[in-house]
């Protein structure tokens, strides 16, 4: 396919930018979207790009010059009559008000195109991921790192070293519209827009005062929430000076862990210890499937207060006071699991269903009209988001504790049986460590500081009106992750290895070195309160800690205007340039990072010679040090060329764009777009198509991740096993990912035979190449022996013992391919035609994922299908339907009903389902007895009542039927939920009051 010449585009963009910067300009912004329906587009007098109902009256544009132009987030073009080819869905402030969520993020993730987003109900099992409590958006299931999230078309400093933003840090009360661009938009907006763009657009000229006060809770009397928001705006000096400020506070208490056993939180009864039971190799050879989905699973490797797992005493558990008793294993015991039995020590239900969550945001904007045709402004934002949750109760040890027979805390009968039945004097014990006085709890805190200085406006050039906007941004984000009540592995092992001191008769730690370092013994056998001094030794007050400072500097300038009058209409152009610099530095505590104790944290983490000097001492949450930066220079140009305008052929136009990027790390990258729209002669029928190349440059984490070291074994080309160090580290040689994004759409917009009906159907196909993905050490060794020199540079396995290593880095080997169909529809009816009051609006959005294929790109591996995989993020169907009736009771009452639908799927598409005569399973294609998982429908109901022209009361009930989540089994006992797809919270009630005074 022919694409615009690179040198020509850059020269044009740079020369034009330099020549126009000094000219007088005029402020310009698009009017807001039609406030009636998810999917509405800004009203520019032309058919909307996505379904919309009949246009309601729009507020006045920000400046007089904005009256005839519109900025749509899928394009940089702002011109009269411009219709972009890229599919875009818009949600207005009215849509978010009807959703009545404490956080705008929770409304957005219900959109069918948004799949795989993270929030306060996801990653609650994680201690070390760094993304806990992060409200980040993902389109098409391609991941949060491949969705670009903007605020007023501007980049926002990342809240994580991967560069992804936290939507909870945005000033949400002033948002008047959110555009969700569901096609590739890198040519218009730059890197990361492979899945698309989500653009939050604020009301920059808000005048008056408005507030929102709300509260809520679940049916189970938990996850109580409160929201307080306020915004004020006023013009001074005949409107030349405008000041807008807002403040927001939201608190959601979360759903705490119920502790141990097969029990749900606060009366929830749906949890039943689901697990995938793995058969033996003999059973598989006889034709039995490898996996079977079982309920009420009991793990055989540990019990609540200790279980002997080998030898003649196997099955001896410990109860109150350390009393031994025979453990009840249950029935159908295969591998690690039985069905039924003593499930009091299971830990799966102990993960929080939702985090304790608090967000505080302060925002201000001051603008000054230098004259009627230009504006300068300053915006400032401070935001802090705090989370807290427990990933699991206790700290389960699955039969891997080597307990000596002379342990001082063993009951006498067990010690005697151990001495008689274990020749080496050691037996294996597993325990859930339910004696611990507190569960592990994780506390991430993210604080953003952002300042933007900018100008926008318009000017005349060669008899044409041109507009511009320019801004400079500095943003900082500090993330602190504090983990509490967690153990140090070596100290735990020293403390449980207790003996009696022959001189004093006191119970002490066996190791003299550990005793010298402060070791105090603990008793893990039975329901015995743990000694406080012992607890403070194994779980010091200062636990794992990570401190990350991220910064972003951006300078950007963009121009819009008409080049000339073509035979079918004006030829419009947008062009601009941008410079961006990203930087981060992360520091972990010495026990986790393994750095010298001469660090900022040395006083809080005193040196302990029994701990590993290389770090990784904690049970979980071993954070390491790292730092890095990159910069990128970009220039782009976009053209809209009308091709046809006639009564017989309709109207057609061509939209092309090119962006050239130069990264200090990844080198050159190029994004382009070629699209077309055709308003056919058929009443209301329009076609659109777009093909684009989109890019994602490697982020700071992928480039500069700090090194962590673990010991592993790999086989060389001769099949000999070699002990190596697995050194996990970033790869500064990574190149950008590139994607080919194709879409084709049919739009039916208010035809004469259905004036209030809109429909769009869009087919999309996205192929991502050079995907940044990591390899395991054996894969790297195999690739090196296969002749891949890039990988060989990360492998050294021919040296003396103790010197061999493999750098476990990310490489540009993998690929992704997703395709499917989006459907949007809307219909509005004036009920007066039927002798009734008010207006009824019907809306529907649905996405059908046909394929979501991930290919590791490594010899010996096979691509995997993610569409319909209910352990992932992409169900085959995801739909959002709503019906609202507004204007009841004399225009005071409005009611709304919403249905969220997820289609049925499978545990894993690569599993082969069979009950008998099964083929031998492989690593890529295991066999399973039943691979089916059901879908779900969630019904929400809400309403609002106008107490006066200024005050509205509202209510909302989410998950009205209190539908239980579908359990997704794992190969271990975990929470077994997928909150990225299913509702994990249950029925939720919310009420509130909104006030607007203008």
TrEMBL record:
TonB-dependent receptor plug domain mapped to chain residues: 84-197
Protein species of origin: Pseudoduganella lutea
Membrane topology value: Multi-pass membrane protein
Signal peptide range: 1-27
Keywords: Cell outer membrane, Membrane, Receptor, Signal, TonB box, Transmembrane, Transmembrane beta strand, Transport
Pfam annotation, one family: Plug
Compartment annotation: Cell outer membrane
Motif (TonB box): 69-75
Positions of the UniProt region annotated as Disordered: 32-66
Residue ranges with Low complexity bias: 48-66
Predominant place of localization: membrane
Annotated TonB-dependent receptor-like beta-barrel domain residues: 458-960
InterPro entries per the UniProt record, alphabetical: Beta-barrel_TonB, Beta-barrel_TonB_sf, Plug_dom, Plug_dom_sf, TonB-dep_rcpt-like, TonB_box_CS
Family, per entry: Belongs to the TonB-dependent receptor family.
GO cellular component: cell outer membrane
SUPFAM superfamilies: Porins (SSF56935)
Flavoprotein keyword on record: no
Protein's UniProt name: TonB-dependent receptor
């Amino acid at each position: 396919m022919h694409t615009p010449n690179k040198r020509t585009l850059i020269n044009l963009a740079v020369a034009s930018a330099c020549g126009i910067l000094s000219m007088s300009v005029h402020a310009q912004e698009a009017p807001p979207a039609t406030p009636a329906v998810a999917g509405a587009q800004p009203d520019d007098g032309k058919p909307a790009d996505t379904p919309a109902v009949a246009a309601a009256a729009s507020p006045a544009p920000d400046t007089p010059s904005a009256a005839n132009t519109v900025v749509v987030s899928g394009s940089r073009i702002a011109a009269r009559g411009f219709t972009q080819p890229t599919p875009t869905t818009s949600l207005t402030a009215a849509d978010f008000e009807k959703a009545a969520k404490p956080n705008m993020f929770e409304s957005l993730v219900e959109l069918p195109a948004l799949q795989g987003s993270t929030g306060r109900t996801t990653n609650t099992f994680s201690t070390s991921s760094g993304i806990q409590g992060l409200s980040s958006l993902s389109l098409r299931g391609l991941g949060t790192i491949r969705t670009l999230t903007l605020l007023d078309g501007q980049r926002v400093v990342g809240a994580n070293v991967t560069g992804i933003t936290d939507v909870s840090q945005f000033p949400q009360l002033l948002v008047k519209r959110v555009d969700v661009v569901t096609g590739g938009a890198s040519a218009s907006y730059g890197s990361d827009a492979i899945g698309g763009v989500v653009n939050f657009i604020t009301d920059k000229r808000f005048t008056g005062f408005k507030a929102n006060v709300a509260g809520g809770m679940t049916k189970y009397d938990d996850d109580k929430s409160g929201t307080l928001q306020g915004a004020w705006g006023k013009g001074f000096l005949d409107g030349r000076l405008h000041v807008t400020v807002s403040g927001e506070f939201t608190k959601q208490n979360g759903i705490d862990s119920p502790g141990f056993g097969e029990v749900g939180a606060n009366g929830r009864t749906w949890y039943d210890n689901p697990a995938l039971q793995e058969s033996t190799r003999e059973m598989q050879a006889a034709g039995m499937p490898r996996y079977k989905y079982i309920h009420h699973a009991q793990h055989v490797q540990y019990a609540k207060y200790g279980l002997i797992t080998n030898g003649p005493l196997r099955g001896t558990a410990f109860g109150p006071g350390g009393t031994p008793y025979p453990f009840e294993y249950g029935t159908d015991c295969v591998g690690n699991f039985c069905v039924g039995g003593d499930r009091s020590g299971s830990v799966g239900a102990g993960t929080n269903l939702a985090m304790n969550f608090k967000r505080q945001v302060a925002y201000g904007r001051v603008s000054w009209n230098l004259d009627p045709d230009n504006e300068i402004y300053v915006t400032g934002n401070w935001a802090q988001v705090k989370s807290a949750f427990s990933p699991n109760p206790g700290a389960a040890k699955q039969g891997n504790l080597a307990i000596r027979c002379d342990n001082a805390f063993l009951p006498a009968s067990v010690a005697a049986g151990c001495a008689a039945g274990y020749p080496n004097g050691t037996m294996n014990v597993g325990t859930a460590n339910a004696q611990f006085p507190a569960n592990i709890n994780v506390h991430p805190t993210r604080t953003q500081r952002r300042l933007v200085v900018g100008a926008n406006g318009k000017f005349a050039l060669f008899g044409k009106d041109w507009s511009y906007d320019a801004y400079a941004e500095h943003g900082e984000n500090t993330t602190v992750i504090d983990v509490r009540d967690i153990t140090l592995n070596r100290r735990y092992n020293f403390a449980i290895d207790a003996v009696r001191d022959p001189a004093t008769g006191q119970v002490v730690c066996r190791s003299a070195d550990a005793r010298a370092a402060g070791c105090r013994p603990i008793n893990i056998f039975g329901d015995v309160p743990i000694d406080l001094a012992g607890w403070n030794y194994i779980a010091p007050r200062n636990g794992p800690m990570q401190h990350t400072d991220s910064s972003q500097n951006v300078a950007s300038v963009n121009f819009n205007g008409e080049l000339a009058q073509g035979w079918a209409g004006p030829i419009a152009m947008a062009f601009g340039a941008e410079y961006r610099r990203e930087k981060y530095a992360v520091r972990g505590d010495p026990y986790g990072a393994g750095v010298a104790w001469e660090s900022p944290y040395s006083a809080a983490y005193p040196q302990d010679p029994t701990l590993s000097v290389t770090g990784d001492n904690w049970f979980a949450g071993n954070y390491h040090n790292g730092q890095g930066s990159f910069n990128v220079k970009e220039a782009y140009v976009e053209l809209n060329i009308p091709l046809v305008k006639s009564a017989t052929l309709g109207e057609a136009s061509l939209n092309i764009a090119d962006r050239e990027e130069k990264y200090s790390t990844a080198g050159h990258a190029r994004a382009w777009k070629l699209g077309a729209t055709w308003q056919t002669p058929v009443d209301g029928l329009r076609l659109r198509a777009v093909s684009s190349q989109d890019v994602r440059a490697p982020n700071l984490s992928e480039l500069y991740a700090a090194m962590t070291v673990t010991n592993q074994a790999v086989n060389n080309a001769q099949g000999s096993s070699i002990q190596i160090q697995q050194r996990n580290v970033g790869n500064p040689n990574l190149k950008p990912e590139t994607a080919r994004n194709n879409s084709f759409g049919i739009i039916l917009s208010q035809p004469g035979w259905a004036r209030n009906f809109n429909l769009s159907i869009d087919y999309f196909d996205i192929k991502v190449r050079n995907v940044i993905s990591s390899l395991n050490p054996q894969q790297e060794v195999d690739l090196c022996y296969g002749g891949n020199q890039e990988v060989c540079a990360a492998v050294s396995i021919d040296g003396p013992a103790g010197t061999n290593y493999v750098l476990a880095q990310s490489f540009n080997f993998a690929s992704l391919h997703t395709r499917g169909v989006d459907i949007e529809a809307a219909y509005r009816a004036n009920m007066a035609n039927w002798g009734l009051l008010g207006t009824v609006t019907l809306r529907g959005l649905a996405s059908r994922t046909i394929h979501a294929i991930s290919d590791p790109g490594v010899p010996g591996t096979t691509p995997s299908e993610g569409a319909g995989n209910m352990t992932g993020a992409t169900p085959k169907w995801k739909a959002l339907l709503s019906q609202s009736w507004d204007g009841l009771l004399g225009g005071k009452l409005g009611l709304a009903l919403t249905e969220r639908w997820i289609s049925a799927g499978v545990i894993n598409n690569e599993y082969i389902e069979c009950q008998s005569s099964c083929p031998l399973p492989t690593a890529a294609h295991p066999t399973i007895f039943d691979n089916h998982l059901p879908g779900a429908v969630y019904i929400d109901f809400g309403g609002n009542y106008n107490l006066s022209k200024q005050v509205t009361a509202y209510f909302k009930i989410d998950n009205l039927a209190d539908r239980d989540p579908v359990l997704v089994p794992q190969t271990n006992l975990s929470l077994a939920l997928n909150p990225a797809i299913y509702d994990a919270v249950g029925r939720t009630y919310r009420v509130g009051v909104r006030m607007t005074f203008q």
